[in-house]
């Protein structure tokens, strides 16, 4: 018997990703973080409803068309989210004095109270997930995320 030898092609190590490629990969993974944070929302407040409340809190009262721009979704989708939060009394829709065909969206006191609760829920979820992180690491992450956001 003779031993058979097989030739193998030399293997090359995969090219490591560039820093920008790795960042793109990491940012794609942020979707998992967002989904986990969404699990902390109350059952009657899905992420789209929370987004409506957050936009109104950050930017003040506005028309539906502006809300759709902030949310970067179709106006029909925005309208469904707005109806959901209005039906629960978290926002009010008043006739725009400048154009009677339009409505102005505004947070109600119960909407503000819900936002406070949502903020506490998100903070608690982050505290649980990052319990092993140092304050310096969390501060560095906050600084870099704010810098990334401002770059866009």
> What structural class do the secondary elements suggest?
mainly alpha
- DSSP, total strands: 3
| Strand content bin | 5-15%
Q: Considering DSSP H and I runs of 4 or more, what fraction of the residues is helical?
A: 55-70%
Alpha carbon gyration radius: 24 Å
Query: Stretches where pLDDT falls below 50 for ≥5 residues?
Result: none
Largest sheet: 3 strands, antiparallel
Topology as a string of helices (H) and strands (E): HHEHHEEHH
Helical stretch tally: 6
Query: In angstroms, what separates the terminal alpha carbons?
Result: 68 Å
Strand order of the largest sheet: 1-3-2
What value does the average pLDDT take?
A: 90
- Principal-axes geometry comes out as elongated
Entry summary:
The chain is mainly α and 152 residues long. Helices cover 61% and strands 11% of the residues. It has a 3-stranded antiparallel sheet with strand order 1-3-2.
Can you describe this structure?
About 60% of the residues lie in helices and about 10% in strands. The protein has about 150 residues and is mainly α. The protein has a three-stranded antiparallel β-sheet with strand order 1-3-2. The radius of gyration is 24 Å and the shape is elongated. The mean pLDDT is about 90.
């Amino acid at each position: 018997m003779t031993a058979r030898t097989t030739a193998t092609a030399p293997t090359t190590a995969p090219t490591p990703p560039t820093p920008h490629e790795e960042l793109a990969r990491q940012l794609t993974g942020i979707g998992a973080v967002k989904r986990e944070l969404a699990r902390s929302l109350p059952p009657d407040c899905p992420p789209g409803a929370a987004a409506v409340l957050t936009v109104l809190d950050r930017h003040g009262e506005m028309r539906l068309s502006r809300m759709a721009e902030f949310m970067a979704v179709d106006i029909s989708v925005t309208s469904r989210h707005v109806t959901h939060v209005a039906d629960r009394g978290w926002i009010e829709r008043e006739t725009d004095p400048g154009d009677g065909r339009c409505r102005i969206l505004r947070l109600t006191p119960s909407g503000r109270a819900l936002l406070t609760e949502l903020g506490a829920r998100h903070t608690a979820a982050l505290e649980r997930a990052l319990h092993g992180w140092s304050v310096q690491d969390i501060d560095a992450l906050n600084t870099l995320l704010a810098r990334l956001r401002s770059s866009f």
